[in-house]
Amino acid sequence: MTNSISAAETGKPDMIWGILMLICGFLAIAVPLASSIGVAIVIGWLLLISAVWHLLFGFRSGSGIGGFLWQLLLAIVYGAAGLVILLYPLAGLAWLTLVLATFLLIEAALELVDAIITLLLGILIWAQWPFSSAWAIGTLVGVSLIFSGISRLMLSSALSRGGTGAARTAV
Protein backbone atom coordinates (compact mmCIF):
# COMPACT_ATOMS: atom_id res chain seq x y z
CA MET A 1 0.00 0.00 0.00
CA THR A 2 2.84 2.41 0.76
CA ASN A 3 4.36 1.65 -2.65
CA SER A 4 1.26 2.90 -4.45
CA ILE A 5 1.24 6.11 -2.41
CA SER A 6 4.89 6.81 -3.15
CA ALA A 7 4.38 6.08 -6.85
CA ALA A 8 1.42 8.49 -6.95
CA GLU A 9 3.38 11.11 -5.03
CA THR A 10 6.32 10.69 -7.40
CA GLY A 11 4.12 11.03 -10.47
CA LYS A 12 2.32 14.20 -9.34
CA PRO A 13 5.34 16.58 -9.42
CA ASP A 14 6.34 15.15 -12.81
CA MET A 15 2.81 15.76 -14.07
CA ILE A 16 2.90 19.36 -12.82
CA TRP A 17 6.29 19.93 -14.49
CA GLY A 18 4.97 18.36 -17.68
CA ILE A 19 1.96 20.68 -17.75
CA LEU A 20 4.17 23.71 -17.06
CA MET A 21 6.54 22.68 -19.86
CA LEU A 22 3.61 22.33 -22.25
CA ILE A 23 2.31 25.77 -21.31
CA CYS A 24 5.77 27.32 -21.71
CA GLY A 25 6.22 25.55 -25.05
CA PHE A 26 2.95 26.90 -26.42
CA LEU A 27 3.81 30.38 -25.11
CA ALA A 28 7.24 30.20 -26.76
CA ILE A 29 5.59 29.32 -30.07
CA ALA A 30 2.92 32.00 -29.62
CA VAL A 31 5.50 34.74 -29.03
CA PRO A 32 8.65 33.41 -30.73
CA LEU A 33 10.48 36.75 -30.87
CA ALA A 34 10.18 37.28 -27.12
CA SER A 35 11.23 33.72 -26.34
CA SER A 36 14.10 33.96 -28.84
CA ILE A 37 15.36 37.15 -27.20
CA GLY A 38 15.07 35.40 -23.83
CA VAL A 39 17.19 32.51 -25.11
CA ALA A 40 19.73 34.98 -26.53
CA ILE A 41 20.00 36.76 -23.17
CA VAL A 42 20.51 33.47 -21.34
CA ILE A 43 23.21 32.48 -23.84
CA GLY A 44 24.84 35.90 -23.40
CA TRP A 45 25.03 35.40 -19.63
CA LEU A 46 26.34 31.85 -20.06
CA LEU A 47 29.07 33.16 -22.34
CA LEU A 48 30.03 35.81 -19.76
CA ILE A 49 30.16 33.20 -17.01
CA SER A 50 32.28 30.98 -19.27
CA ALA A 51 34.64 33.90 -19.87
CA VAL A 52 35.15 34.33 -16.12
CA TRP A 53 35.79 30.59 -15.69
CA HIS A 54 38.33 30.57 -18.53
CA LEU A 55 40.10 33.53 -16.98
CA LEU A 56 40.17 31.88 -13.55
CA PHE A 57 41.32 28.59 -15.05
CA GLY A 58 44.09 30.41 -16.93
CA PHE A 59 45.45 31.82 -13.68
CA ARG A 60 45.13 28.53 -11.80
CA SER A 61 46.15 26.01 -14.47
CA GLY A 62 49.92 26.35 -14.12
CA SER A 63 50.36 25.10 -17.69
CA GLY A 64 52.84 27.80 -18.63
CA ILE A 65 52.52 31.00 -20.57
CA GLY A 66 51.06 29.24 -23.62
CA GLY A 67 48.24 27.67 -21.62
CA PHE A 68 47.54 30.95 -19.85
CA LEU A 69 47.47 32.91 -23.13
CA TRP A 70 45.10 30.35 -24.66
CA GLN A 71 42.73 30.61 -21.69
CA LEU A 72 43.01 34.40 -21.78
CA LEU A 73 42.16 34.43 -25.49
CA LEU A 74 39.15 32.17 -24.88
CA ALA A 75 38.03 34.41 -22.01
CA ILE A 76 38.23 37.48 -24.25
CA VAL A 77 36.29 35.81 -27.09
CA TYR A 78 33.60 34.41 -24.77
CA GLY A 79 33.34 37.69 -22.86
CA ALA A 80 33.12 39.80 -26.02
CA ALA A 81 30.47 37.52 -27.53
CA GLY A 82 28.47 37.53 -24.29
CA LEU A 83 28.63 41.31 -23.97
CA VAL A 84 27.63 41.87 -27.59
CA ILE A 85 24.65 39.55 -27.22
CA LEU A 86 23.57 41.23 -23.97
CA LEU A 87 24.06 44.79 -25.25
CA TYR A 88 22.52 44.12 -28.67
CA PRO A 89 20.11 41.20 -28.19
CA LEU A 90 18.45 41.53 -31.61
CA ALA A 91 21.79 41.51 -33.44
CA GLY A 92 22.94 38.68 -31.18
CA LEU A 93 19.76 36.81 -31.99
CA ALA A 94 20.41 37.25 -35.70
CA TRP A 95 23.90 35.78 -35.35
CA LEU A 96 22.67 32.94 -33.13
CA THR A 97 20.05 32.13 -35.75
CA LEU A 98 22.71 32.10 -38.46
CA VAL A 99 24.84 29.78 -36.33
CA LEU A 100 21.80 27.55 -35.79
CA ALA A 101 21.07 27.39 -39.53
CA THR A 102 24.73 26.59 -40.24
CA PHE A 103 24.72 23.90 -37.55
CA LEU A 104 21.56 22.33 -38.99
CA LEU A 105 23.02 22.32 -42.50
CA ILE A 106 26.25 20.69 -41.29
CA GLU A 107 24.30 18.19 -39.18
CA ALA A 108 22.13 17.29 -42.17
CA ALA A 109 25.24 16.68 -44.24
CA LEU A 110 26.71 14.41 -41.55
CA GLU A 111 23.56 12.56 -40.42
CA LEU A 112 21.82 9.89 -42.44
CA VAL A 113 18.72 9.67 -40.24
CA ASP A 114 16.54 12.79 -40.27
CA ALA A 115 18.92 14.42 -42.74
CA ILE A 116 16.21 15.56 -45.16
CA ILE A 117 14.11 17.29 -42.48
CA THR A 118 17.17 18.84 -40.87
CA LEU A 119 18.44 19.99 -44.27
CA LEU A 120 15.08 21.54 -45.15
CA LEU A 121 14.90 23.30 -41.78
CA GLY A 122 18.45 24.61 -42.17
CA ILE A 123 17.71 25.86 -45.69
CA LEU A 124 14.46 27.48 -44.52
CA ILE A 125 16.18 29.33 -41.69
CA TRP A 126 19.21 30.27 -43.80
CA ALA A 127 17.12 31.49 -46.74
CA GLN A 128 15.00 33.74 -44.54
CA TRP A 129 17.87 35.08 -42.44
CA PRO A 130 17.87 37.66 -40.79
CA PHE A 131 14.05 37.61 -40.76
CA SER A 132 14.07 34.04 -39.42
CA SER A 133 15.65 35.45 -36.25
CA ALA A 134 12.18 36.60 -35.21
CA TRP A 135 10.77 33.08 -35.10
CA ALA A 136 13.36 30.29 -35.46
CA ILE A 137 14.93 29.91 -32.02
CA GLY A 138 11.76 30.66 -30.06
CA THR A 139 9.73 28.23 -32.13
CA LEU A 140 12.34 25.47 -31.81
CA VAL A 141 12.58 26.00 -28.04
CA GLY A 142 8.77 25.92 -27.86
CA VAL A 143 8.54 22.66 -29.81
CA SER A 144 11.25 21.15 -27.61
CA LEU A 145 9.39 22.21 -24.46
CA ILE A 146 6.15 20.74 -25.77
CA PHE A 147 7.76 17.37 -26.52
CA SER A 148 9.53 17.40 -23.14
CA GLY A 149 6.23 18.21 -21.43
CA ILE A 150 4.43 15.42 -23.28
CA SER A 151 7.11 12.88 -22.36
CA ARG A 152 7.07 14.00 -18.72
CA LEU A 153 3.27 13.71 -18.63
CA MET A 154 3.43 10.25 -20.15
CA LEU A 155 6.08 9.19 -17.63
CA SER A 156 4.11 10.50 -14.66
CA SER A 157 0.95 8.87 -16.00
CA ALA A 158 2.75 5.54 -16.34
CA LEU A 159 4.11 5.87 -12.81
CA SER A 160 0.64 6.63 -11.46
CA ARG A 161 -0.96 3.71 -13.30
CA GLY A 162 1.88 1.39 -12.36
CA GLY A 163 1.51 2.29 -8.68
CA THR A 164 -2.27 1.81 -8.59
CA GLY A 165 -2.02 -1.41 -10.59
CA ALA A 166 0.50 -2.82 -8.10
CA ALA A 167 -1.79 -1.88 -5.22
CA ARG A 168 -4.75 -3.63 -6.89
CA THR A 169 -2.82 -6.85 -7.43
CA ALA A 170 -1.58 -6.77 -3.84
CA VAL A 171 -5.19 -6.55 -2.53
Brief summary:
89% of the residues lie in helices and 0% in strands. It is an all-alpha fold and 171 residues long.
Structure characterization notes:
The chain has 171 residues and is mostly helical. It has one domain (9-165). The protein has 6 helices and no strands. It has helices at 2-30, 32-60, 64-87, 89-110, 115-127, 136-170. Helix 1 (2-30) runs antiparallel to helix 6 (136-170) and helix 2 (32-60) crosses helix 6 (136-170). Residues 165-171 have low confidence and may be disordered.
The rounded distance between the terminal residues' Cα atoms is 9 Å
- Percent of sequence in beta strands: under 5%
Any low-confidence stretches, pLDDT <50, length ≥5?
A: 165-171
Judging from the principal axes of the Cα atoms, what is the shape?
Answer: globular
Characterize the largest beta sheet: strand count, sense, and whether it forms a barrel.
Answer: none
Number of domains: 1
The total of helices stands at 6
Number of strands: 0
Computed CA radius of gyration, to the nearest angstrom: 22 Å
